[in-house]
Each structure stands twice: as structure tokens, then as C-alpha cells.
Write a structure and sequence with these properties.
Layout (H helix, E strand, L loop, with lengths): L2 E10 L2 E10 L10 E7 L6 E4 L1 H9 L3 E2 L1 H10 L1 H6 L37 H27 L1
Parallel strand pairs: 1-5
Antiparallel strand pairs: 1-2, 2-3, 3-4
GO molecular function, one term: structural constituent of ribosome
Protein name: Small ribosomal subunit protein bS16
Keywords: Ribonucleoprotein, Ribosomal protein
Amino acid sequence: MAVKIRLKRFGKIRAPFYRVVVADSRTKRDGRVIEEIGKYHPTENPSLIDIDSERAQYWLGVGAQPTEQVAALLKLTGDWGKFTGEGPTESQVKAPEGKKAFVADEAKKPVLKPKAEKPAEAPAAEAPAEAESTETESAAADEAEKTES
């Protein structure tokens, strides 16, 4: 059985991400696999390349053939250099930078306006008085109905 180390595609149109897998060469691109040994996200900046070095060394040692794309990834991670004994053996994969803390520009004016203070408290005081008067009127109407019946 011919075993290949290749990429298995996931994701939407124009937003791919891949898993690095070990599969029989006769299976479909996204078909059944023997083992997943890593992942590759080319759309991130810098690209995410995460390959289990120990498993990659094992499969290369037992005769699995990497595709061109996976061979390029293995060269970046240093696994190909460890296997063949030629080339760099340390990883050349760039780590993603952390997000910078947001700092507001003090020279600009604030966009948010302060809330306006309530100009008069008299209308606010009248509203509860009106509510009390309607309550007393409804209570008086209820008593009138009871006396009529």
C-alpha cells in the first residue's frame, strides 16, 4: 500500500484551511485517512503551521511520501531536515504577534456627548400627583357602583 502525507481541505470558498494527514494514495482528497498529524491555515497572517514532529518523523521513516505542498511545510518546520540530515533542522515558522493594546488619541475630541441634565423637576413632580388623582377617582367610581347594586 502506497502511503502519502498530504493535505485535507476544509473551509468555505476562498477561505480554506487544511489538515496534514497520512492516507492511502488511492483514497479521495478529503476521504478516509490513517492519521492526522497537523494543521495548516494559509489565510492567517502569518500562516499557522502546526505539525506533530514526532509523528511526521515516524511516517517518513516507514516510507510515507509527502506531496510537494507538505514537503514545503516540512522544510519550514525543520522536520524534513531532521529526516534527510541536510538543511536546517530548526523551525522557521513565524509565531503570530499578539494584539496591540488600544490607546485613545487624546488630541481628538470625544465623540460621545454628555447627557443633558433635567431642566425642571416640576413636570416630574406633577406626574405622580396626576397618577394619585386618577387612582382616587377610580376608587370613588368603584364605591359608587357598589352602592348602586
